[in-house]
Amino acid sequence: MARHEKTRLRILRGGSDANINFEDLRALLSHLGFEERVRGSHHLFLRSGVEELINLQRSGSTAKPYQVRQVRAVITRYGLGGDE
């Protein structure tokens, strides 16, 4: 199983929001077709067809739990990553 898929499944399960590696989350979003812009400590992700702007910030080496929940909501709402 590819690393992107493992990260996506961990996010969708929702049991470890505080333990999602920031770099893995960035790589997943890039893999799903999001474009990244960096402004200071903010990593902004945009994708055509997705209304939401995803804003990520580091919390050490992990992503912030509430931001992982926001990513899960976007993946679920738009059906991203399943059978693309």
Instruction: Give the strand line-up of the largest sheet.
Output: 1-2-3
From the N-terminal CA to the C-terminal CA, the straight-line distance is 15 Å
Structural class: alpha+beta
**CATH-defined fold name:** Metal Transport, Frataxin, Chain A
Observed structural traits:
two-stranded antiparallel sheet; 5 strands; alpha+beta; three-stranded antiparallel sheet
Describe this structure in words.
The chain has a single domain, classed as Metal Transport, Frataxin, Chain A. It is globular. With 84 residues, the chain is an alpha+beta fold. The model has no long low-confidence stretch (mean pLDDT 93). The chain is 42% helix and 20% strand. A hairpin with a 2-residue loop joins strand 1 and strand 2 (42-46). Helix 1 packs across helix 2. The protein has helices at 3-13, 22-31, 65-78; strands at 35-39, 42-46, 54-56, 58-59, 62-63. The strands form two sheets. Strands 1-2-3 form a three-stranded antiparallel sheet. The chain starts with a helix and ends in a 6-residue tail after the last helix. It has three helices and five strands, in the order ααβββββα.
Q: Outline of this structure?
A:
The protein is an alpha+beta fold and 84 residues long. It contains three helices and five strands, in the order ααβββββα. It has a single domain (3-78), classed as Hypothetical protein (Metal Transport, Frataxin, Chain A), CATH 3.30.920.30.
